Structure formats: C-alpha cells, structure tokens
Batch of 3 targets.
Target 1
Amino acid sequence: MRTQVGIVGAGPAGLMLAHLLHLRGIDSVVVDLRTREDIEHTIKAGVLEQSTVDLMTETGVGDRLRREGSVHHGINLAFGGALHRIDFAALTNGRAVTVYPQHEVLTDLIARRLADGGDLRFGVSGTRVEGISGDRPSIRFTHEGSEQRVECDFVVGADGSHSTTRALIPGRADLFREYPFAWFGILAEAPPSSGELIYAHSDRGFALISTRSPTVQRLYFQCDPHTDPGDWPDDRIWEELSARVAGAGAVVKTGPVFQKSVLRFRSFVCEPMQHGRLFLAGDAAHTVPPTGQKGLNLAVADVYLLDRALAAYYERRDTSLLDGYTATALRRVWRAQHFSWWMTSMLHRFDGTNDFDVRRQLAELDLVTGSASAATTLAENYVGLPLTP
Ligand code: DHB
C-alpha cells in the first residue's frame, strides 16, 4: 500500500493532521493501537484555546463544538480569602476559551474522516516505522490479523507521551521535569459550582473546579502520585475539595462521583522534533502538566505547522517549512512549557513548602490579579497565542 503521509496515532494531533491534509487533497493513513471505542471514551481534559476553536470551525469540524461547547470569558483564582477574576474578554480583546471535552473533539474528527473516506486503522499491533533516513519510509503493522506495510513519503509520529516513534530520532535530547504530586480528577453528576473555572491556592494544596455540562462536573485536587482512588469514597472527595475552596468563599455542589483517576504530572520536551522523513507532533514530542490546559492545544498547533509545511512540499517541492518545523514549533512549545510550569508553581504546594514560600506565592497571585500587565500576560497565554508561525 502507498500513501503520502503515514500517521502513527489517532489522537488530536494525528486526526487533526489527517483532516487538514485531506482538505488540501493530500492522502494519509492513520494507525492506532487503541480501538475506536477506547479513543472516543477515554476521559481527558476539556479546554480549547480560541485558535483551536477557530481552526476547527474554519475547517468544518466545529458544528457540535459550537452547539455543545461552553464559552468562558474568564477564570477565577482563589487565594487569600477571596475569588479574583481574570477577565479574558477585556484583557485579550474579546478572546475566550471553550470547554468541550477532548474525547468529543476526537469523536467529531473520526466521524468526519470516515465520512470523507479517510483510512483510519484502529486496534493495530506491532507498529514499526522504517526507513525515515531515506525517501521511502514505511509503517508496518498488523491489522485484523494481516500484516500490512504502508509506504509513505513522510511519517508523522503522533503516538502520545509513550511514543515509540520518538526513539527513532538519533541524538535527541529528552528535557524534562518531574513534579512531586499528581491530580486526583473526578467526574460527578452535579450542578455547576461556578459559572467559570476556579483555580484555588490553599494550605491543603491546589484544587480546580471545572465543568463539562449543566449536569456533569469535572473537578481536580492536588494529591500524592501514589494515591489510590479506591481510598477515596465520595464524601471524602467532596470534603477535601470543599476545604480547599471554602476559604475563598466558593461552595462546591456535590453529587454522585462516577469517575475517579490520578493524573500524572510531568513537563517534557524532545529536541529535535524531527529526523529525516519523520516528524513528531503533540505529546509524542512534548508533555505539559495539566495546569493551564495546553496539551491538546499544542498538538493542534504542531499539526497546523506540519499541514502548511507538507503543503509547501507537495505544491512547490519547497522543503523550507519542513526543515524549519522543529525551530518554529519549539518556540510555542517552550512558551507553553513556561506557562504551565508557572501556573503550577504559583498554585501548588511543593514538598518542603514553608511559610515563606506560601507568602511568596500569595504575592505572585496578588501581582497577577492586581496588575493589569501581569493579568494580561496570564490571560493571553491562557486563551492561547495565535496560530501563526
Ligand atoms: C480542565 C483541565 C485543566 O488542566 C485545566 O487547567 C482546566 C480545566 C478540565 O479538564 O476541565
């Protein structure tokens, strides 16, 4: 079999790229170890930057997002006994974020790819990428019991944080920071506790009140990475969340918890993001801690660049954008790494945090909510930088 672009991974990066390329008439094949069912039902994060929403809308995959997503024009930071609002609309010229779960984005992209006749192979095994240093790379895999080999012009490794394609980049540097904590995340049947997200600093550690719909809420609290969700009955979860936001005057509305998980917390960047005819995109190349919601949005930003770079190659045999992909992508990646680390460091309790550190965090939060220029920095980064190289 032959295709133009072989894509390993049917997550946000892989599926969005296949969709963008299709709109230009460039063929792709997408393979993934997971089943379609798994991909469409795994709960991930849920906040889309303005430019992600715009790109989905402009490319015809934003209808359900527009109907069912909820637009947020600000967030609240809870600290020092009060809620402090960051007004995105006022600080960023009307930009906003949209709460719409990642698995719904994937569901929409899969439906669109299939409607457009796209080649998506779910539940494959033994995926192997070969020949990336030459001009005929290929992907081998087993699908529905038969061995397949797809010859490609280019391969995109969009296979997530446990990427195997990343290992094919010789001499790469893996830059990372581990954090001594994790997030306990829940989904609950409950009314919203707040009209906008609340990021809370407290003596007991960080908490985040988010939402999914008028009847389903998403909440998180900082925990030890070894926490066993089994040790946390609903009452204990609600007490902990409540204790972390009550000081700021927020009230958590409770209800049955139907999903509990502990989310790993890591900052990671692979440099370079390419070798020969292999290009990495999304979590395969970089992982951000969840604070500030950059993961899916960075994946989309990567493939926005790759789409334009591949178009330049196919339309004019111009390889300059492909050659410059790592340098262009890494600029945004490092801005997002800094932002996610900054939000994390300002709001979480670290091992060995003492009163000095707490007062310093409170002063930083005071700066961010009290100074228009500092608030603008937070708002601009939260709603996301524009998608121009
Ligand atoms: C959500 C997750 C985040 O990491 C965040 O910063 C905001 C919201 C969410 O899943 O809703």
Target 2
Amino acid sequence: MKLLEERIVKDGIVREGGVLKVDSFLNHQMDIALFTQMGKEFARLYDGCGVNKILTIEASGIGIACIAAQEFGCPVVFAKKNKTKNIAGDVWTSRVESFTHGKVYDIIVSKDYLKAGDRVLIIDDFLAMGSALKGLIQLVNDSGATLVGAGIAVEKAFQPGGDLIRSMGVRVESLARIASMDPESGVQFVEE
Ligand code: 5GP
C-alpha cells in the first residue's frame, strides 16, 4: 500500500537491531485518516470472506483493528496480556515471546467472545518473528472458530515470521513489506 510505504519513509525511524519506530503515526500518536485507508484496504483484500470478528492483541493492534472493524461491520476482540498466573473465568490462552521487549507472556481471550462459528480476521501492527501472530492463531484454532487470515500493517520480511505463518497455510496480507532497513540507508520495500 503506497500511502503507508510513503509514510514509513517520511516519518519512520530505523533503530539499531532491526526495530522500526513509527510512534508519530501508528504506535503512539495515531493517524486516523491513514488508519481509515488501511481499514478499507483490509476490507478490499478480505471482501467476501464472511469475516464476523476481528481479533488483535493489546495494545498497539487495537486502534487499527477498531478502524478496520468499521469497514467489516463487526466487533473487535483483543487478547489481553496476562500478568497473573491465576486467570479469572473461562479463557483461551497461549504464549507469546516479545521481539521488542524480550519477554515471554501469556495472552488470554474469554471463551464468551471467541467461539466455533466465528470467522476471524486477525489484525496486528507488525509482523516480525511471528510469535504474536502464532499465539493469536492458536487461540482461534483452540476455540473452534474459522481463521480467515491475517491483516498486518508492517511486515518486516527480512525476519522469519511471514514465511513461518504462510507455511502453516494461513493467508497473510501485509500492507507494507520491508525487505531491508538500516539507520543509514533507511527502508527498502519488497517489490510486488
Ligand atoms: P513478532 O511476534 O512477530 O516478533 O512481533 C510482533 C509484535 O512485536 C508486534 O505486535 C509489535 O508490537 C512488535 N514489533 C516487532 N517488531 C517491531 C518493530 O520493528 N517496530 C515496532 N514498533 N514494533 C515491533
């Protein structure tokens, strides 16, 4: 998606260690006009797939998921990052390793909000090692819901997550795919 690629080039900051900071329009301050265009693109890509629920993970996936959900006319469920071992109520749970924070945590979704019969689109801001997406996919599979696919804002295609998830047979649509980046030369995108 040209608009997102151009914005990454203009306002993204490449950090050492393969981290892209996009706080000015995506991860801290949020550009809702841009999110609206991203939501429309996800809706176009997954048109006719019968999506009736969007699943994301707190915190930075929530904004994009909510704007996209307006296009699909469906609710958003966000997986919570669980802090205590004693989880209240009846929940689906899986484990995620954070690339940016170097931590392992459990994620949970209430069984009330993810069920057999749901047709789920997973939305997230970044795809890097694939751990967050894999954790979300496991929640969907455990619940008996149907996974339609994943919609990602920024895929760092030089990291293994995208290949890993696609090799599991999951449809992954990323709006910007970064082939390489470094602080000196900036960001290069995958040629489509
Ligand atoms: P993964 O589990 O695929 O390694 O990473 C996905 C999660 O890590 C995303 O939800 C995002 O929050 C965070 N993340 C991974 N790489 C980056 C990055 O380069 N920049 C930012 N801002 N977040 C990242």
Target 3
Amino acid sequence: MIDGEKFLERPIRWAMIGGGRGSQIGYIHRSAALRDNNFRLVAGAFDIDPERGRDFGEKCYVAPDRCYTDYKEMFAAEAKREDGIEAVSIATPNFTHYEIAKAALEAGLHVYCEKPMCFFSNEAQELERLAKEKNRIMFLSYGYCGHQMIEQARRMVASGDLGPIRILNMQFAHGAHNVAVEKKSAATAWRVDPKKAGLSYVLGDVGTHMLYLQEAIVPQLKIRRLMCSAQSFVEGRALEDNAMSIMEYESGAIGYIWSSCVNAGSEFGARFRIVGEKASIAWDAEHPNQLQYEVQGSMQGAMQRGAGYLYAEARADDRIGGGHPEGLFEAWSNLYTKFARAINKNEKGEPIDFWYPDVHAGAEGVKWVEKCVESAKNEGAWVTY
Ligand code: NAD
C-alpha cells in the first residue's frame, strides 16, 4: 500500500518544461509528482510565452528568479546553484521532446518525458546512448500503465492464468477530432501539423499508449512484422486521423491496435482484450478499477481494484483500499513514485528491480510509429520489424 511515507532523505528538486497555464497535461504532472512529497517543484520554463510562463510559475509557488524564459536558460542557471534541479519533466509539444531531452541528459538531469519521445529511431538511439553514458533515469509518460489493474494484468499473464497469449485486441479510438477542431484549437493544431507532431498524428499520440500497455502486460512479446492502413478522414489534414495496425509476434501471437481521433461518439475509447489459450482479460480506461477475467467454460467476472485476491505487486499500488474508486491521477502518482524510487536507486548505485516505461520503451514507440507509417505508405504491406 502507498501511504506517502518517505523513502528519500529529502524530496528531489524538480522542474517542469511546458505544462503551463491552460495546457492539457501540465496539471496532472504536477499533481502526480507532488502527491507523495517525493518531488519539490523549484523551477520551470512553463510556457512558450515567457511572461505567461513566469506569471504561472509564481502562482505555482515557484520563486520568481527560478521561473525561466526557456529550458536553455534554466539548465545553465540551475547548474550554477548548489541547490539546482536534479530532475525535469518535459510536457511540451512533440517536436521539442528530442532537443529538450537531449539537453537535459547532457546537463546531468533525470528526465520524465512526454510521449512520443522523439520522431526518428536515430534520435531515440542517441537518447538511449546518452541516458546510459550519463547514468540518468529517463522515464516515459505512458500514464495508463500506472493503474493497479495493469499491474494485476501483468502478473496474471506472468503467472500463466491466461495460458499462452494468442491475441491482443487493443484500441485507443476517441472521437474528439471528428471534425476540423484544429482550426479553432491551438492544442489540436500542432497535433496535425507534420512539423510539430512528426511522422504521424494518432499512431504516435494514442497508439503508442496501447503499444506500451502490450509491452507492460506481455513483456515477452516481440513483433516479427506488422502492417498498417492509415487514413485522414477530415479534409485538409496532412497526418492520419485513423489507423489500423496488425502485428505478428515471434511467439505466433497476433495483435491489433486501432488508433483514432475520429471515432465519433466515443468519449475516450482506450481499451483492450488479451486472449490466452484458456482465458481472457479485458480492461477499459474509462473503468480502470475493474479487470474483466473470463475463463473458458468457467467463471466470468470483473476483478476489483484494491481487492485482497489481487497479486501482491498490484496490491502494493493501492492507496485507499478496495471499494473506493482510484483513477488516472493515482495511476500517474504511482508512476512518479516509481520515478523517484528509480532515481533513488540510481543515486545509491543499486540495481533497479522493478519495471517502468524507460528510454528503451520510448525508442520502441518511435520505431513502431516509423514502421506503421512505412507500411501505410506502401498500401498496408507487411513490414519486417
Ligand atoms: P498543450 O498544447 O495543451 O500544452 C503545451 C504546453 O507547453 C503549453 O503550456 C505551451 O505554452 C508549452 N510550451 C510549448 N513549447 C514550449 C517550449 N519550447 N518551452 C516551454 N514551454 C513550451 O499540449 P498538451 O496536450 O499538454 O501536450 C503536451 C505533451 O504531452 C505532448 O507531447 C502530448 O503528446 C503529451 N500528452 C500526453 C498525454 C499522456 O497521457 N501521457 C496526454 C496528453 C498529452
């Protein structure tokens, strides 16, 4: 159970880049990082507009002289302080992740980076190399994997409760951009602009979340080849707003990820069903406290978050006990606590004996998007992974 008891000698000095006023994802980063007192927000370059960022930072209790114009100024100034920042979260639009993450690692900081980590595999390899060379933790913001029932799913697969895995049927298909909302929303405009979003829109934006859930729940799966069909249904969009990807794995299993923002009527639409030889599990991000467990010829029912029958590793993520709902904020808090634990072990030179979305997971997401785009450009041809 997580009860906020300290495991660090003192909170980690932490900064944010992006995530300023009105941003979609800034508040949950702060809320999750600060929840268990493992981090203290001491600096930031919160906004593309420095003045707005400064004002925002001050209103988040950051000292005025540590609300910076941009990340370069922040890294240089903080490096000169005895009490300078030790870790940073990057919550800016996609096209900035690579250069900021690279600069952060070079500055010797531990990094919590939004997805996609970068656009191209050569950049991902460079970040992997740098994280290793500088011996820093690089953590990817795949927030859904912090839910307790995802840990339970992972343990069920590892324990053989489902039998060998045959089929992974996954989707992250919302309907929020079924018309050209980007004409009125800056936060949507960059997502459909190839210069700012990269090779893809929905594959990188939502599909990579499901890819990482596959990796987290069934870590032994290795993609052998994939095919992808991608479309842009809304007129004028240069990037795909819908994509269907099929993966064949070396084990003989098959997987499917539907990535979409034009699934009209779907509020969120992130869910999966994983089918083994003897049983299946199913989960829906809108109902994260339940994991459906269906044994062929036997029981079918929803396992409940916080219950005593869950695997110990899943129970360890519990914050309030069974019967009470936990949600995305708790899932993200679990991940930031793991980030702090990983930093702590790293600083002490101890091996990290738990899983988390690391720099390699970020690189896998980048590679998957590249391969999907390659297939889609070749009329959905199979692409060797
Ligand atoms: P947004 O457009 O709502 O906000 C972006 C913020 O970054 C704004 O405050 C903007 O002023 C600031 N910014 C932009 N460029 C900057 C720079 N160079 N320096 C400092 N600040 C800068 O975007 P968002 O929806 O919050 O998305 C941000 C990132 O988070 C994206 O990479 C997105 O893919 C990711 N995201 C992840 C999840 C998740 O579940 N992990 C969910 C939503 C968004």
